[in-house]
């Protein structure tokens, strides 16, 4: 971690901007390390900074007063978050927490909006990014509306497997997914996730290894999810 | 309807653009009337036009193969839809159907993207609009994750009431909301909605009138929803 530099050079959104511009932006950000589990944005807070992830991983979460935690997504190095409040000046729509120790650059709203106006290529990327978030949200609304909790767990394991393929029909998800995290992503409980995972293990779809979860028969798992989703 | 003209002059997104520019845009659109219930966009279709609503009302819907219909939102005069496929060139994320007879202007993707690049004020509005959609989606994900079907119906009646206030604590929703439409918006069935509405009528929150639904005790209804939502 000592080697990480305070530079936005590897932020996807800024790709193609000249070194001079990036240098200037570096100086206009506030730089800060956050520890794992540390809160970065509090929902309903009035801050409007945009955050760039130079190192680490953060989680976008909605908390209900009842204490339920709904994970919207995880973002890692090279990505940004917090654009929405910068764009519409409304309170934050979700909370953000560091999952690992993370180095973030906070850019003031006014600077971010100048960046969009001055560089159509950056604006186009922000638009694409938001379109992607809307598409993911629509899928989640569809899954919540049509799938039972067990099917949603299947769909989430399948999603993670597809991001971690090691062979044609096999994936290795490392580190081992945490039941509570999966529950938070699919709006279910840790207990339900544990039950469904045991069932998947019995049927030979998943196998617990020392460093992670081996997922096999991915084509069959995929068919199982599609059959229920009816899509 | 005969008097409606083929002009984008009243489209919110284009407010402030010069008459010359709007005139030019008018000519670059394909203009078409759609009948009530007519399909405008088919989900997964490869078209990338952006549609402006000059007159009428459309409904954004996801259909599952199982035949379930999930309403994402309704849009009326002055609004646009279909930007997402224009922005990311991916298949349509949802279907769109005319709710009433509607006059639409279809703008080709390339022209729409030039408009965003050439007019930062238009790009800023599109960004705000997408941020709004993401916020609405997050609320729906939260409601689907935490509220039961009956509470979601309460929340939807409350939302519609707030858009149609006639007094401090009273609203009149006209025309009468259709149970199937409410069910589609809150991911529930017509039967459940009918049961919940009867219950609300018994408790004095709603009253069926000839031309619409009278909603009273809105503060109490609101409290009821907030208590369960825990927000």
From TrEMBL, chains A, B:
Domain Cyclic nucleotide-binding: from-to ranges: 13-133
Tagged with keyword Transcription: yes
Name of the protein described by the UniProt record: Crp/Fnr family transcriptional regulator
Signal peptide: none
Lineage top rank: taxon: Bacteria
Pfam families for this protein: cNMP_binding, HTH_Crp_2
GO terms for cellular component: cytosol
InterPro entries per the UniProt record, alphabetical: cNMP-bd_dom, cNMP-bd_dom_sf, Env_Response_Regulators, HTH_CRP, RmlC-like_jellyroll, WH-like_DNA-bd_sf, WH_DNA-bd_sf
HTH crp-type domain boundaries: 147-219
GO molecular function: DNA binding; DNA-binding transcription factor activity
The organism of origin for this protein: Terasakiella brassicae
Keyword Membrane: no
